[in-house]
Amino acid sequence: MTAIAVNQFAQSITCHAWGPDHSMVAFCPNNNEVHIYRLSQDKWEKVHVLEKHDQIVSGIDWSPRSNRIVTASHDRNSYVWNLEGSEWVPTLVILRLNRAALCVQWSPKENKFAVGSGAKTVCICYYEQENNWWVSKLIRKRHDSSVTSVAWHPNNILLATTSADGKCRIFSTFIKGVDTKDSRTGPSSDSKFGEQIVQLDLSFSWAFGVKWSPSGDTLAYVGHNSMIYFVDEIGPSPLAQNVAFRDLPLRDVLFVSERMVIGVGFDCNPMVFAADQRGIWSFIRFLGERKTISSGSKYGSQFSEAFGKLYGQSKHGLSNDAVEPSRSRGGIHDNCINCILPLRRSGISTVMRFSTSGLDGKVVIWDLENQADLSEYL
């Protein structure tokens, strides 16, 4: 079995985050609170309740090095929580939003974090030592709808966003005095704060989760049309592929290696996508099943590719619409999975364990260690 731990923490969970050593987990039980549990003698015990927000907490991220928690909420506020003694002390972040904050993520160097919002705005927040507070610079007038997800490139400068307008965009977040000049490499080498590097118009429906590969060479994001998109060579002429499936749409994605992605969403069961030696992405199987792509599905992929080229999809790059037959819903999760996070060991880029949480109130830990049919992609 791939799931090694299933914990029923609440009736519903909107988001979760792990502490630096993975012995503590923070989550929002679909209200204005953040509950923190600690693993003690094989049992999870509630040790803290963070109460500062007025509405549902929509995003949590826990920095592994500085041990700080950042939260974002529908109340349009964000807090940075520092552990002082045995208490978590909140510091209000000046977001300047007039709509809900929907997602949040620390940058790789943990000197900034990004907040996506329903105000069509992204807030890039950083600490001002002189004034002893967190401030934000806004990326405005770029999105046509709510910003649903954000993802930092490993270089700490590029930020990918997805939006309910169906587009994925990549921005430069270089802030003078916060970032160093030598960190600007590749497409962002001469860019200024808020400059749009590329806009991807691959999806014709809401776009949700977005992630970079460990090297930052590949980007993946999902659409509400039951499709996942992979983009290489980020810049003026990106190379894109798409994979379609007949099952319910995804909400979030995670690169576990350069060639393998886990997608989670309304099907309640993680989906495995992988790239072959040619770099062609396809759907492999559901993680709770040992089912590989049939020859019929491969034929369908070839047909879809030819069909896509006929209607001009080839201008975006490769098209690989792998379509799998319908299946029964459910598995370990009983409702939509809305969050997936890596449980990465220090110094190892490949993710062998990861966790998911969903609207069923469960946090599930998955292990890829003994998945023989997936080992070639890890």
Automatic annotation (TrEMBL):
An example Gene Ontology biological process: Arp2/3 complex-mediated actin nucleation
WD repeat windows: 50-91, 140-172
Gene Ontology molecular function: any one: actin filament binding
Localization, UniProt: Cytoplasm, Cytoskeleton
Superkingdom of source: Eukaryota
InterPro entries assigned to the protein according to its UniProt record, in alphabetical order: ARPC1, WD40/YVTN_repeat-like_dom_sf, WD40_repeat_CS, WD40_repeat_dom_sf, WD40_rpt
TM region(s), chain numbering: none
Alphabetical list of SUPFAM superfamilies matching this protein: WD40 repeat-like
Record keywords, A-Z: Actin-binding, Cytoplasm, Cytoskeleton, Repeat, WD repeat
Gene Ontology, cellular component aspect: Arp2/3 protein complex
Biological role stated in the UniProt entry: Functions as a component of the Arp2/3 complex which is involved in regulation of actin polymerization and together with an activating nucleation-promoting factor (NPF) mediates the formation of branched actin networks. Arp2/3 complex plays a critical role in the control of cell morphogenesis via the modulation of cell polarity development.
Family affiliation: Belongs to the WD repeat ARPC1 family.
Subunit structure and binding partners: Component of the Arp2/3 complex composed of ARP2, ARP3, ARPC1/p41-ARC, ARPC2/p34-ARC, ARPC3/p21-ARC, ARPC4/p20-ARC and ARPC5/p16-ARC.
Protein name per Swiss-Prot or TrEMBL: Actin-related protein 2/3 complex subunit
Biological source species: Quercus lobata
Name of the coding gene: LOC115957419
